[in-house]
UniProtKB/TrEMBL annotation:
A single GO molecular function term of this UniProt record: methyltransferase activity
Residue ranges that the Swiss-Prot or TrEMBL entry lists as coiled coil: none
Protein name as annotated: S-adenosyl-L-methionine-dependent methyltransferase
SUPFAM superfamilies in the cross-refs: S-adenosyl-L-methionine-dependent methyltransferases
InterPro entries membership: SAM-dependent_MTases_sf
Transferase keyword on record: yes
Swiss-Prot/TrEMBL GO biological process terms: methylation
CDD domains on file: AdoMet_MTases
Top-level taxon of the source organism: Eukaryota
PANTHER family per record: 2-METHOXY-6-POLYPRENYL-1,4-BENZOQUINOL METHYLASE, MITOCHONDRIAL (PTHR43591:SF24), METHYLTRANSFERASE (PTHR43591)
Alphabetical keyword list: Methyltransferase, Transferase
């Protein structure tokens, strides 16, 4: 089905472009800079899993798959590795390509609304939703209700704050950790808990999911880690963070903390300087 023209009436703010459907709900841009970042991040997630798209023990003959918060649609498109699967990707923004495999389709939808699908799913996947998720309980319940018996849900996400290998580094002497603290503060004011991915294990069990497995991966920010894989992952994480800094806070800091765009840009310059110059400070993200 074709989307209505109104979803393309994007909002422009501080030199960035934001979604129109459910306007203002997701404080992160949907422009070309952000699309490139999401595609780069996709490769970082695959590298983390040694090239795999997921960890769930799903079969090769899987049929119905849902990708919530599909972004550019890259995960859903690559899932054509399973030719038997029909994949639906949902997102607030129509930023997915139109030339896609015949078994892949996209739907402009708000996952906070009631889910109305014609079928239940064998596999539901979601990734990097920490800056969008206000109610994990409702989301996980809807996922549970829309899974076939024996189906799988996989949640891949980040948890704030980032950590440093040097315990003496705090948000008082580190611009990066100060950014994280400010992000958490601003996000909490609009109902988002940036540390929530670390807490969803018990919610999954309370919802009714069985055989729940939780695993934390570390992404080094920069090429300081040992081993070819971790050095490459660190390069991806560094580039991802460089673009995520303005994406994460231009909207939040100006709307919620009432900073000016200039104040945000000056502050982010100190964060970038730290990441570039403070080589003895080894930061890493948790995914």
């Amino acid at each position: 089905m074709s989307v209505t023209d109104s979803v393309y009436d994007y909002r422009y703010e501080n030199g960035r472009r934001y979604h129109a459907y459910s306007e203002g709900k997701y404080p992160v841009p949907n422009d070309e800079i952000e699309k490139d970042r999401l595609d780069l991040q996709h490769h970082a997630f695959r590298l983390t899993l040694d090239g795999a798209l997921y960890r769930a023990p799903i079969g090769k003959d899987i049929h119905h798959v849902l990708d919530v918060g599909t972004g550019t649609g890259i995960w859903a498109i690559v899932f054509q590795e399973h030719p038997s699967a029909e994949v639906i990707g949902t997102d607030l923004s129509p930023i997915q390509p139109t030339d896609v495999p015949p078994n892949c389709s996209f739907l402009i939808d708000d996952f906070d609304n009631d889910w109305v699908f014609r079928q239940q799913f064998d596999f539901i996947h979601t990734r990097a939703m920490v800056a969008a998720m206000k109610n994990w309980n409702r989301f996980l319940q809807q996922a549970y209700d829309n899974l076939k018996p024996g189906g799988y849900l996989e949640v891949q996400d980040f948890a704030f704050p980032p950590l440093c290998t040097d315990p003496s580094v705090t948000d008082e002497n580190s611009p990066l950790l100060r950014w994280s603290t400010l992000f958490l503060e601003a996000a909490s004011r609009i109902g988002i808990d940036g540390s929530s991915p670390l807490k969803i294990g018990p919610i999954l069990r309370e919802t009714g999911f069985e055989n729940v497995e939780c695993k934390i991966y570390k992404w080094p920010v920069g090429r300081w880690a040992k081993g070819d894989k971790m050095k490459l992952l660190g390069k991806f994480a560094y580039e991802d963070l460089q673009d995520w800094l303005p994406s994460s806070c231009l909207g939040l800091f100006t709307r919620v903390l009432k900073w000016s765009r200039d104040e945000v840009e000056v502050f982010l310059s100190t964060v970038r300087r730290e990441l570039k110059e403070e080589k003895h400070r080894h930061f890493y993200a948790r995914a």
